[in-house]
Amino acid sequence: MIKNSIALACKALLEPAGLTDHQLQTVLGHLLVPTVDMADLYFQSICSESWVLEDGIVKDGSFNVARGVGVRVVSGEKTGFAYSDEILLPALQSSAKIAASFAKRGQHGRIRAWKKLPVKPLYPASDPMLSLNAKDKVHLLSQIDEAARAIDPHIRQVNVSLMGMQETILILNSDGSMSADIRPLVRLNIHVIAEKKGHREQGFAGGGGRSDYRYFIKNDVALNLAKEAVQQAITNLDAVPAPAGTMPVVLGPGWPGVLLHEAVGHGLEADFNRKGSSTFSGRIGERVASPGCTVVDDGTLPNRRGSLTIDDEGTPTQRTVLIENGILREYMQDKLNARLMGVQSTGNGRRESYAHLPLPRMTNTYLLPGPYAPEEIVASVERGIYAANFSGGQVDITSGNFVFSACEAFLIENGRITRPLKGVTLIGNGPEVLTRISLIGNDLALDSGVGSCGKEGQSVAVGVGQPTVKIDALTVGGTTA
Description:
This protein has ten helices and 25 strands. It is of the alpha+beta class. The longest helix has 18 residues, at 134-151.
């Protein structure tokens, strides 16, 4: 499969421009002067489409193609970077000259032959956009619209969007290695508005992964997502104002792991720790979480949204244990920060496109399960909050302070989930929250495939997850005391 991936990537990215091995080896070789630690060429092609159905009518549709090459030269902590929107030899040579302009001149290196890295693809190389024709795509959207309206008579509006992408990358490294990846990605979003007695509430559900559109048809995935969106909206119609104060909070399984991703995950990325700006800097081997808390970042899960066969530096992804039984074990590394910190890359070097530099980023980050049944966890709370879903939040990486809004939450009274709540805001500090986790459920779930992560202006697809978790004390911002 690796030979097929490289062959397909070369055919798509290099052959149209007539670029030969000798030309590429010469360009990369000219970047290799004694003051340069590493260099790479990152070729990429992205084809994407989207379909939007609003209240039964196709309101928007698009198809986009982007292709180009990024050239990076690294010397110590300094990085030279340039890119071109054209994959042509003159453009590549010009970008290489600009990227290497900061490095001192010297005798050039030489690359004699490419070493093709043997990796096993985690997803099919077929184009997901070809898995259904245009008529069938519109039919799928219409079915979802009709199904959502049929679930409950209070549904007034339904918006459905379908997106697909095929990304082809080819990476040539200064160590002579050549690697490629062909990445499919699909996503379905369902947004509904329910109304009762003049009061309106909304619900959202979505899903996807590195598959094709048939994923949404198999096992009624699309219809189940429609039910989830409707249930959220209908539940919120009867929600009462949330209490405020410090109290126990139980986080549901799956998507609530986004709190872990934002409040803790970013603080475990290598660049923040190398620079000493993370609250976890210099704490390898120390206890940073309650016993029983094990957090992993795993880019090797088949077909998951955050998974990658190789990262955007050509390093195979891996399962990295970040926190083990409460002890900090490792940071997520790209090549640059790993070299400066004297360790190996963990396959977490990611970039949004050829026009961006790679950064240490998460893939699929989640908390491993514990021994408790979800019912036991809820039963242990006399009065608190059950947060089933989140709509957004903000985090300060340096301090770990966060604010998250729950779009689906309930009151826990006498060990039972009772009334739905509105206006629930969770306020806390990521590292402190880790030490306040007292019970971890046995119901680990990953999110449905909607995660996107922003960092330094770059957005990449990610996955999150966790089992049901009890946090003993967390500040809840509500409307009643």
